[in-house]
Amino acid sequence: MTHQLLSFSGSMTLASICLAQSGASLSSFPPEARAAYVEYEKALFEEARPDRLRETHILLAQEPHIAGTEGDARTIERIAGIFRELNLEVEIHTIWPLLAEPISAEVQIIAPDTVNLDLKEVPLREDKYSSQATIGWNAYSGSGEAAGEVVYANYGRKQDFETLRRLGIDCTGKIVVARYGGNYRGFKAKFAEAAGAAGLIIFTDPADSGYMKGLTYPEGGYANDCCIQRGSIMTLGYQGDPLTPGIEATRDAKRRDESEVALPRIPVQPMGYGPVKEILSRMKGQAVPDGWQGGLPFTYRVTGGDELRVRMRVEQKREIKKTANVVATLRGATHPEQLVIMGAHHDAWNHGAADPLCGTIAVIESARAFSKLAAEGKRPARSVVFAAWGAEEFGIIGSTEWVEANRANLMKNAVAYINLDMASMGPQFGGAVSPSMRAVVADVAATVPAPGFTGTVYEEWSARVGAGGGVPTFGDIGGGSDHVAFLCHAGIPSAGFGSSGSRGTSYHSAYDTLVWYWRTVGADYGPAQMMTRMSMGTAARLASAPIIPLDQCAAWDDLGKQLGDLMQRPPLKEQSAGAPRLLLQSVDLSQRGRGALSRATAHAAAGTITPDELAAVNRTILGLERAWLSEAGLPERPWFKSLYASPDEDSGYDAWVLPGLRRAAERNDPEAAAVGIELLGDALSAQSRLLDSLTHNRNERSE
Fold first, then answer.
1. How far is CA 422 from the centre of its chain?
2. How far is it, in rounded angstroms, from Cα 51 to Cα 54?
3. How many CA atoms lie within 13 A of 165 on its CB side?
4. 364 pLDDT exceeds 80?
5. Which DSSP state fits 260?
6. Is the model's pLDDT at 700 over the cut of 60?
């Protein structure tokens, strides 16, 4: 299999792909050192083996391992054991967050007839793992019983509840039914509770993930009628353990009282579309507005009528439980204090073959490759950290607690973070990436073979975007996974790598198993090999280049584009001087920065820079990243300290670039816009001073 992938393009071997690259991320290497680095990167790539990826996948996906359970503890030990065998420095970072577990749940139609509805997937003969799952549940649901008439709320987004209000539909005391999609499930619960709902049912609709997309499992890969999406519904103004915001959740940490934390109070229950069909088909109210119709074979209705009543009961237990991150470090040869970090979470709602483990295995395989070459005397200049995070599924808890515990050191020394949550889901690469990392990721994409395609990842990506002339673009990075604390709390540039192209989804269901993965994504592990190489190549360049290859000029360019869009919104239009001033500052910084950093890079390549000057340049590069931070934090969300990026406040997954200004635009708040402009101006001024010091120090030496 490896040989076949390495000879995928006829005369273009892996070595020739590497040697043909012209990426800017190699430009700070002295010319005589570039060939040696390319050989090192090639050797890393050749160590990414599909057979080992498969073995690790089988080892870690053999049992359910929800955070805080015995299966979770065994998974932690398995991962730690692998890292120890690789002679890495291994830390089991134990944490004690508030977690939840299901006790029982019921949903039934109680009028006009009585129907008990299923809350668990059907075990499949074709999939031996599918019988081991728990009932469907949403972590942190309120416990209790609710009964009432039914309201259908489409995706349960903010705008959907606004539409219900315009239609004169009162949700007070009702059982709201909403489909998955459009926002983070926790906001569905938050908005339903705010609308006065007595309870919430969330279901997977066949139009979004089921038979209208393709064949369902086990014949195909899409959600069958009993498939249930589990998941947390916690929505707070911070990430991590709900009781210890901003501090590490140690066993003896000072905790908030649970009654003071805005966890859900109404019962919330996820279901498959088969059982929910029994509810929706009995609804007799007015037809839904445009865009609200799902894939079940009848007209969806907004209300159920006076006769239709549904009862639901949910019982969960919330308690402080033990789980852990597994963090393994390969010390750098010359700058061991500087850190390039790669991670994926290890906890799952069931077996987790797709989410998260098809990404976790790429982290582990990367660690194998780096460790093997280090044993041969080939070690990057900076340290590379390989992490398997705990309790991500409950609210991005493990990685957040590690960042909170190590924030001062990370702000001083962390170069970048690469996240691989659920990363290997098909042959088509994509990613959400901080602007300063985009160039190095694109450079690496031009060296990695694309599975099933006669060319590189970059070439396949370009062809997919537009035949012949497509230019790949990255998504904005915001919320949804373990990069959040690194990016938004500590100001560390981050990338979330992923791949797609497989026909199906088992997201958070009992069918997220090895059998589903092999049938739907494939058993050859070509995508996982690609993602391992992309991650290793990006980490290796960041850890090896004399000048850290982060392009802050890209962030300033992006800032200008974002400001141009936001200046068309009313609150920014009213700031007749402030917003244009920021625009001019960003243009000036981009022009000056390109000059200063390109000169420093040229001196490094020519060997005409002293070690002290080189260290100063790299401190400046990291300082430019941290200058986006405001220790006061964002309005009403002080834990989120990045002025450049955050998750949005209304969906949870999307990115808000320039979140202070974006929030002002969304809320139509001129006063907030003025504050946001002032804070961004301070950040840009700090970056300007850093550039001045870089130029000044170099000029002093020249004199």
1. 9
2. 5
3. 13
4. yes
5. G
6. no
Structure tokens at 148: 């009432």
Q: Distance between CA atoms of 59 and 484, rounded to whole angstroms?
A: 28
What letter would DSSP give residue 422?
A: T
Instruction: Tell how strand 335-345 and strand 382-389 pair up.
Output: parallel
* Amino acid in the structure at residue 609: I
Q: How far apart are CA 192 and CA 490, in angstroms?
A: 33
Give the 3-state DSSP-derived string for 569-614, with helices as H, strands as E and coil as C. Answer: CHHHHCCCCHHHHHHHHHHHHHHHHHHHHHHHHHHHHHCCCCHHHH
Class of residue 317 by CB neighbours under 10 A (exposed 0-12, middle 13-18, buried 19+):
exposed
pLDDT of residue 577: 67
What tens digit of pLDDT does each residue of 77-112 get?
Answer: 999 999 999 999 999 999 999 999 999 999 999 999
DSSP for 468-504, written as a single string: TT----PBPP-SSSTTHIIIIIH---EEEEEEE--SB
SS3 category, 264? coil
Taking the C-alpha atoms of residue 55 and residue 49, their distance in angstroms, rounded to an integer, is 10
Ordered alpha helix ranges (H), 319-432 = 357-375, 397-413
**Strand-strand pairing, 268-271 and 199-203:** parallel
Phi/psi region, residue 565 (left: phi>0; alpha: psi -120 to 50; beta: rest), is: alpha
Tens-digit pLDDT profile for residues 497-507: 999 999 999 99
Contact 660, 561 (CB under 8 A): no
Residue the block writes with tokens 């500052």: 585
Provide the percentage of residues in the chain whose pLDDT is more than 90.
Answer: 82
Instruction: Give, as one character, the DSSP assignment of residue 286.
Output: P
Joined together, the tokens standing for residue 691 give: 């550039």
Cα–Cα nearest to 672, from 646, 627, 630, 634: 634
Q: Report residue 4: phi and psi, to 5°.
A: -65, -40
Integer Cα distance of 316 and 61 in angstroms: 25
Give me the sign of the Cα torsion angle 178, 183, 185, 190: negative
Kindly report the number of other CB atoms within 10 A of residue 89's CB atom: 13
CA distance 511 to 374: 39
Mean of all residue pLDDT scores within the chain = 92
Question: Would you say residue 659 has pLDDT above 60?
Answer: yes
- DSSP, collapsed to helix, strand or coil, labels residue 130 as helix
Interval 576-596: pLDDT, tens: 567 788 889 999 999 998 888
| pLDDT above 50 for 194 | yes
Tell me the per-residue pLDDT of 535-559, one tens digit each, with 9 for 90 and over.
999 999 999 999 999 999 999 999 9
Write down the pTM of the prediction: 0.94
**What sign does the CA torsion over 18, 23, 25, 27 have?**
positive
Sorting pLDDT into bands at 50, 70 and 90, what band is 356? very high
Determine which of 169-178, 211-220, 432-441, 653-662 has the lowest per-residue pLDDT on average: 653-662
- pLDDT tens digits, 253-266: 999 999 999 999 99
Q: Alpha-carbon distance 381 to 96, whole Å?
A: 35
Are 497 and 304 in contact by the 8 Å Cβ rule? The answer is: no
Q: Does 520 have pLDDT greater than 70?
A: yes
Which residues, including other chains, have CB under 8 Å from residue 563's CB and lie 6 or more apart? Answer: 579, 582, 583, 586, 658, 661
Strands of the sheet containing 382-389, edge to edge, are: 89-95, 323-330, 382-389, 335-345, 414-419, 494-500, 428-433
353 Cβ partners below 8 Å, 6+ apart?
Answer: 57, 61, 506, 512, 513, 514, 516, 517
Could you report the per-residue pLDDT of 461-484, keeping only the tens digit for each? 999 887 555 678 899 998 889 999
